[in-house]
Amino acid sequence: MADSIDIRELNERIERQSAFVTNLVTGMNQVIVGQKHLIESLLIGLLSDGHVLLEGVPGLAKTKAIKTLSKLVDSKFSRIQFTPDLLPADVIGTMIYSQKEEAFQVEKGPVFANFVLADEINRAPAKVQSALLEAMQERQVTIGKHTFELPSPFLVLATQNPIEQEGTYPLPEAQVDRFMLKVIIDYPRLEEEKLIIRQQINGEEQNVRPVMTTQEIIEARRVVKQVYIDEKIEQYIADVVFSTRYPEKYGLKEIKDYIEIGGSPRASINLALAARAYAFIKRRGYVIPEDVRAVAHDVLRHRIGLTYEAEANNVTSDEIVNNVLNKVEVP
User: Fold this and answer.
1) What is the CATH number of domain 228-327?
2) CA torsion sign, 67 to 70 to 76 to 81?
3) Averaged over 210-227, what is the pLDDT?
4) Under 8 Å between Cβ of 121 and 82
5) If we measure between CA atoms, which residue out of 270, 217, 230, 279 comes closest to residue 14?
6) How far apart (Å, rounded) are the C-alpha atoms in residues 181 and 52?
7) What pLDDT does residue 57 have?
8) Cα dihedral sign for 9, 217, 143, 110?
9) Does residue 265 carry a pLDDT above 70?
């Protein structure tokens, strides 16, 4: 009985403290038409301290959504346009000789910001992409002999074009794994498209004002950590990830030959963190299996390595995640 009272009290507290989510969503909806899943994914990344990779063809408001979110939080924003001739120094910074001081000084790059928009990240070669690796994982940057802490919160929000497009370089596996979510953005619905046309031809430019500070984001993350995850949910998360490694143990023999690499422990951690943030967005103080299922595709799709056989049969990682979610027993 004490447990149920605790949960009820926690639920009420989370509901009170998650009110700001409405302000963020309202602000996003002023600028972005539709794309509910995109907005939710950006909020999950923001509340879980996880980087987000958005994939879709050009023109689907990926960049616009990220810029709008950064305007809603009173923070430092920088944009890096990735191109084939970009150098690592263009991202993290470099040492510059000062004649006045007669010494080398550090010139910090655009990565020193709260929100870093890495636009078309797969247009730059691996050397540049790897320059982001230390920043994303360690939250620090080394320039010459000096190591600098990055500001908090620090979030890399990257966009990429579908791999089949001209002039794209696939991201290294180690870097892809550092993105908490990989979100596939689709075309808007017909009604939404009409609304977009109307807004653009009328020149209705919405002015977005900050509704939160970076300190409030840090506070919100502390609150998100209080969302309760039951042992049964933890077991469910572990089963979902393990079934991508050992499908035959979960009665999924048919997908065994399609999986080269299963989800890493980082997949399990991020599945739990994303489910908790999703519960918080839904104003709930505890995680239910539906929260895990809601975020599973975005957390797992870029962490499952496919075999040549899968590619030959046009089997996607999303289909594998569907099979897993349909088969693994829900608590």
Assistant:
1) 1.10.8.80
2) negative
3) 86
4) yes
5) 279
6) 5
7) 77
8) positive
9) yes
Instruction: For the chain, give every domain's residue range.
Output: 36-187, 228-327
Q: Is 208 in a helix, a strand, or coil?
A: coil
Do residues 172 and 129 make contact, with C-beta atoms less than 8 angstroms apart?
yes
**Structure-token match 């730059």, residue found:** 124
- Per CATH, the number for 36-187 is 3.40.50.300
Give the least confident one: 39-43, 138-142, 206-210. Answer: 206-210
Q: Who has greater pLDDT, 104 or 89?
A: 89
Of 255, 179, 189, which is closest to residue 35 (Cα–Cα)? 189
Using CB atoms within 10 Å of the CB of residue 293, give its burial: 0 to 12 exposed, 13 to 18 middle, 19+ buried. Answer: middle
Residue 205 has a pLDDT of: 64
Contact 134, 97 (CB under 8 A): no
pLDDT of amino acid 2: 40
Give the H or E element holding residue 300: helix 289-300
**Alpha helix stretches (DSSP H) within 187-288:** 190-201, 214-224, 231-245, 253-256, 265-281
pTM (2 decimals)? Answer: 0.86
pLDDT digits (tens, 9 = 90+) for 237-255: 999 999 999 999 888 888 8
Displacement of CA 260 from its chain's centroid (Å): 24
Closest CA to 316 of 302, 326, 296, 328: 302
Q: How far apart are CA 207 and CA 243, in angstroms?
A: 47
- Decide the pairing of beta strands 93-98 and 103-108: antiparallel
Q: How much is the pLDDT for 164? A: 62
Cα(143)–Cα(141) distance, integer angstroms:
6
